[in-house]
Amino acid sequence: MPQALEAEQDKVRHDNVARILVAAERLFRHYGYAKTTVADIAKDLGMSPANIYRFFASKVEIHQALCARMLNESLELARACAALPLSAEERLRRYSMNHYQYTVETMLDAEKVHEMVIVAIERDWQVVDQHIDQLQSIVRDIIAEGMANGEFTKGDPELASRCFGAATSALHHPQLVAQCIGKGNRASAEELTEFSIRALKA
Questions:
Q1: Which domains does the chain have, with CATH numbers?
Q2: For residue 114, is pLDDT > 80?
């Protein structure tokens, strides 16, 4: 197959996949994941369900692709915070608060989005576990720098990153953010972040 033709076919496939994901996300947000079918997505795009199945084997696979995109955006956000020319303390602060804001804006802006994310978490896909490991690795490197330059008490950065992640996990989990953070006598996002950073200096 000529290279130009192969490239054109790849572009067409990429464009179709992108269109399907955009339509699916819009419908999941509006009607909810459970109530949206592949036929609904196809109708929205003016195509047959069979055409959708050329690119995705099921609604679950479409959902996985959407959640993988969210996780990738979250990972890029973490990398951007880690690369800032700031102190380790400030980079951790930005990491924690920016991810909290991302969770609020991306996963909780509507009840139907919340449902879509919860479905992903409950299925406990391996990609979610891998994502957590990748985030923890970024946090570990920031903490290791802080320990090396005297910002944080010297110790095991691997252990410290696990503890920091556990202490701030409520800020990045949509169910906990929706139900707990800053409500009543619960700690705010800022309070949890500052408490976790102070623990690294103890």
A1: 1-56 (1.10.10.60), 65-201 (1.10.357.10)
A2: no
